[in-house]
Design goal:
The structure is a homodimer of 165-residue chains. By secondary structure, chain A is mostly helical. In chain A, 58% of the residues lie in helices and 6% in strands.
Amino acid sequence: MMSSQCVQSLKNLLICLDKAEQYAGAKEFDTSVLLTSRLAPDMQPLTYQVQSACDYVKAAAAWLSGQTPPRHEDNERTVDELRARIRKTAAFAESVAAAQYAQASGREVRLSWAPGKVIGGKDYLLQMTIPDTYFHIAMAYAILRHNGVDVRKQDFLGPINLVNG
Amino acid sequence: MMSSQCVQSLKNLLICLDKAEQYAGAKEFDTSVLLTSRLAPDMQPLTYQVQSACDYVKAAAAWLSGQTPPRHEDNERTVDELRARIRKTAAFAESVAAAQYAQASGREVRLSWAPGKVIGGKDYLLQMTIPDTYFHIAMAYAILRHNGVDVRKQDFLGPINLVNG
């Protein structure tokens, strides 16, 4: 199921955060410099990109299984706190059993920024959840990469299920 | 079907390229400066990011429908040539009818970088095609954004099917 791949991709950010912390340690600067870095002055910093990726995964797991998303405050200030945010998001998404998505494609999802409108469950997953989640994970990656952290596309992709053939 | 959303996301890059061209025009610099820009010295430039996003979409449309991907040379040097690359990729992907994907999840895909190995069609779509496609589209976006082009997340997302509700 697609949402489980989004959860995996979110967890892949943990590797990127490890590398960010190691890089800051090796270069002897405060990791918060990376957490507050942006690709452009009117673009959101790394911390926000991680929070936002988490929220798209959390929201999809909730709305598509007929639940209200748990509230996660955006108050992370350290790499450890961002790790915890990723882990609690993944734990919530993984708490939803496949059977709970049985009605997912027929559900209507309301969006706070579009009053009076809804989006069908399938469109929500394909047009919002997946692109939005990958967008924010990729921006987190790009901010680190631009700042010299040795993250690799393999870190972004995570495990790939190759078999002998 | 997911691959049609990847095709749509690829087409959304056309808007980003329009904005890149307008920006270069307004600031009176050669658009090729943007096409050769990178987020890090050991990372690929914009042109490659577009080519690569195209190739993941093309490959998935082909392999998952039992075809060999058409060969597209990586010889684009202008924005117009990149637009043409996106359009021929989209045209190929859209030439594949839904019925041709009937056996997609059971297919085994060979990867040039993993001799002797295969990946199942479903894993290929979820673990490679979708994340790889969004990765390269997002890196193209990030390069433009970092260079001051006024691309917006809405441009990345493209049309969202909101309905009254």
